[in-house]
Write a structure and sequence with these properties.
Largest sheet: 6 strands, mixed
Helix content: 25-40%
Number of strands: 14
Distance between the termini: 43 Å
Number of domains: 2
CATH topology of the largest domain: Rossmann fold
Number of helices: 11
Structural class: alpha/beta
Strand content: 25-35%
CATH class of the largest domain: Alpha Beta
Oligomer: single chain
C-alpha cells in the first residue's frame, strides 16, 4: 500500500505546547498512516513526551490542531481507539498484575468474558505468564513495563502510543517486545514509537522524525535515511600508502584504510563515502589502472544512530538538566 492510499490516522498542524523557558514542542506538523510504524526521535528534553501527551489527550496544546482517525485529539472518540504506554509508568503495587489489567478492563468498559480471555492471552504474550498472580511490588522494572504494554493492548487498539517501551528491559525482553511490535504492525496496527533505542526503531519503523529543542529537524522513511549517504567498503590487493594518498588526491573523496595490515591474500579494506555511484565507478577504474587488484565492493548501510548523531552534531540541545 502506498503512502497516498493509507488512511491518515494521526494528523497535526503546527501543534504547539509552550512551557516556561522555551520547553515543550513547537509547530509540529506530521501525518501517520494506517498500519504504519512511526519513530519519534530526539535527545533528552527535546519535547517528545510533551508531543505524545498532547496527542493522547493528557495535556492541552497551546495552539495548533491535531486529529486521530479524523477526531480531535483528546476527544472520547479519539481516545477509545488508542492504547498508551507512558514513559513514567506507575501501577498499584498492592494489586496483582491480573488485578491491574482487570481495573483497566473496567475503565475501558470491556465485556467480562472478553476481558477474561484478553487478560489471559496478554499475560502470556508480554511474557508475564503465571506471574500475573504476583503483586506488582514483586515485579522488576522490566516486568512492570511488560504489564504496562499489556494494559496498552488490552482494548485491542487500532493505534498504539509507546513512550520508551523497552527502556527497563534486558536484551531478551527487548528482543521479545520488538518481535511483538513487528507482529502488531504486520496485523495492521498503527504504532507511534518514542524511543532512545535506535536499533529497535530501525528494525520496527517505516518512517521517523527527529526532534530537537521542540522542533522537527527532519523526517522521512527509515530506508531513505539509512541510504542517505552512500558508504562503501572495497577490498584491494597490493595497495601501498602512496596508492591511497594518490587516490585521495585524484578523487577528492574521503577514503580511509581502517586497518593497513594486509590479510593472507595481501589485501586491505578501504572505506569511501560517495554522493553518486558514478564516483565509486571512477574510483574502481583508478584502482585497476594502478595495477591493483579489486577483490570485492560492498555497500555499507548507515545505522540510524550514526544518522542521529550526525544530524544533531553542532546543534544546541536543551538536555535533561536545563
Amino acid at each position: 500500500m502506498t503512502e497516498t492510499e493509507r488512511e491518515t490516522v494521526i494528523r497535526t498542524d503546527r501543534l504547539t505546547k509552550h512551557y516556561s523557558g522555551g520547553r515543550g514542542c513547537h509547530e509540529i506538523s506530521l501525518t501517520v498512516g494506517s498500519g504504519e510504524a512511526f519513530g519519534f526521535l530526539g535527545p533528552n528534553g527535546a519535547g517528545k513526551s510533551t508531543f505524545v501527551k498532547s496527542l493522547v489527550g493528557l495535556i492541552f496544546p497551546t495552539s495548533g490542531t491535531g486529529t486521530l482517525f479524523g477526531a480531535p485529539i483528546g476527544s472520547l472518540e479519539a481516545r477509545r481507539q488508542i492504547g498508551y504506554l507512558p514513559e513514567l509508568y506507575r501501577y498499584q503495587e498492592w494489586l496483582t498484575g491480573e488485578e491491574v489489567l482487570w481495573l483497566h478492563a473496567k475503565l475501558c468498559k470491556l465485556d467480562k468474558s472478553y476481558a477474561r480471555k484478553r487478560i489471559d492471552s496478554l499475560l502470556m504474550d508480554v511474557g508475564i505468564g503465571k506471574r500475573g498472580r504476583d503483586r506488582v511490588k514483586q515485579y522488576s522494572k522490566g516486568m512492570q513495563q511488560r504489564l504496562g504494554l499489556a494494559c496498552a493492548l488490552l482494548n485491542d487498539p487500532k493505534l498504539l502510543f509507546l513512550d520508551e517501551p523497552t527502556s527497563a528491559m534486558d536484551p531478551i525482553g527487548r528482543y521479545e517486545v520488538r518481535g511483538m511490535l513487528q507482529q502488531l504492525r504486520g496485523a495492521g496496527k498503527t504504532i507511534f514509537l518514542n524511543s532512545h533505542l535506535l536499533e529497535d526503531v530501525e528494525m520496527i519503523c517505516d518512517r521517523v522524525a527527529l526532534l530537537n529543542n521542540g522542533r522537527i529537524l527532519t523526517q522521512g522513511s527509515v530506508r531513505d535515511v539509512l541510504l542517505e549517504k552512500s558508504r562503501w567498503t572495497l577490498r584491494v590487493g597490493g595497495m601501498l600508502p602512496e596508492d591511497l594518498e594518490e587516490l585521495i588526491e585524484t578523487t577528492a573523496l574521503p577514503i580511509t584504510c581502517p586497518d593497513p595490515n594486509p590479510d593472507a591474500a595481501g589485501a586491505v579494506w578501504i572505506e569511501v563515502e560517495a554522493a553518486e555511484e558514478e564516483q565509486l565507478g571512477w574510483l574502481n577504474t583508478l584502482i585497476m589502472e594502478r595495477g591493483l587488484t579489486l577483490y570485492e565492493v560492498q555497500r555499507m548501510k548507515n545505522r540510524l544512530d550514526e544518522w542521529f548523531m550526525q544530524t544533531l552534531s553542532g546543534l544546541d540541545q536543551r538536555g535533561e538538566r536545563e
